[in-house]
Amino acid sequence: MALIVHKYGGTSMGSTERIRNVAKRVAKWVRAGHQLVVVPSAMSGETNRLLGLAKELSPEVVTPSIQRELDAIAATGEQVSVGLLSIALQQEGMEAVSYSGWQVPIRTDKSYTKARIQSIDDARVRADLAAGRVVVITGFQGVDEDDNVTTLGRGGSDTSAVAVAAAMKADECLIYTDVDGVYTTDPRIVPEARRLHTISFEEMLEMASLGSKVLQIRSVEFAGKYRVPLRVLSSFTPWDIDIVEEAKSGTLITFEEDEKMEQAVVSGIAFNRDEAKVTLLGVPDKPGIAFQILGPVADANIDIDVIIQNVSQDGKTDFSFTVHRNDYARCLDLLKNTVGPAVQATQVLGDPKICKVSIVGIGMKSHVGVAAKMFRCLSEEAINIQMISTSEIKTSVVIDEKYMELAVRALHKAFDLDQEAA
Ligand code: ADP
Ligand code: ASP
Ligand code: MG
Fold this sequence. Notes:
alpha/beta; VC0802-like; Aspartokinase; 8-stranded mixed sheet; Carbamate kinase; binds magnesium ion; 4-stranded antiparallel sheet; AKii-LysC-BS; ATP-binding; 12 helices; nucleotide-binding; binds aspartic acid; about 425 residues; binds adenosine-5'-diphosphate; globular; transferase
């Protein structure tokens, strides 16, 4: 008997018919002798609908007290899902009970709309499991120390599931979604994308942080920290497929470096359309200037991603960086009205229509010329690179958003990702 956590995403929970299928699949696992904790997301489109309603009432201003209410609103999507799934399980003859985050409780910090899980009390869940119940826990939500409902950021149900698995010391966490695993890149953009049987934890962490939405980054961080065995697989296979086959399908996130020497240099391509670029022209090139610019941006709680500072000419330089597109208007405003004048910038420019495309692979640690190959491929497609950022196992470029799909497809081909690795 194993303790298994299943997570089902929005599409997998998209209708009562699909919820019935989820219940049948879960019941199959229970009948095979396992203890099951299930973490569903809101039904597809529901979180957007709920946040859209709030936006109708408050289009621009998002104060901390409004963020508190956004979490109270968005969390209801998952609350409906757990209730429905628990009913469907009971219809399958299972004993099942649903809990919202606060009932477990799943404690988080107070950062509304992007809260971090701090602790999970497993006592109640363990008692239910011991009594033979299936426990259904809301994804995406938690509760802070003052009992305010919080949410974990978009895609946060993945993190709920992995965190519950870590707290319960589950034998495995299975992330059921609308694709049958982690691919070399988003199969919706590149039909030739290939499913990976395994992906290393480090690569998955980069892919997720660079925009692959198949797993929320924090879920991968949790899996790494607590060594939670994690697998991504399809919820659209027939629910009654052989459980042994199901258990080894999809993509396993591995923690040991692959022994295979012939590992592909580049394992995957990630992209992110959610960024925007801002530039300050003609700022004095002197010590402290980066701090004078980025300090106030950080104080405004705006995350900064790629940064570039040009060589100086006549003691002046240009300084660009990217921020999340949601923070773009606020950041541009700050630069135009406060930071720009303070550092005597001659001009402040903004471009929200950029994107970031990244190649990721552990093999890049030991191979030279990988970035050069990426740049050659982009130049052959006449795509201009605006910014570059590298780490040991990734190279990212910022380019015009309109070339994103072209760049991803061309790179996928250039690095032979449509071919099975040797
Ligand atoms: P869920 O609702 O189940 O959480 P998501 O929409 O959050 O599902 O994540 C699954 C989606 O992630 C897929 O439908 C796919 O379009 C996208 N995706 C992006 N990059 C990848 C990748 N490398 N491999 C697989 N899917 C990816
Ligand atoms: N329902 C939330 C969202 O749409 C959480 C999730 O699906 O993981 O972002
Ligand atoms: Mg998701």
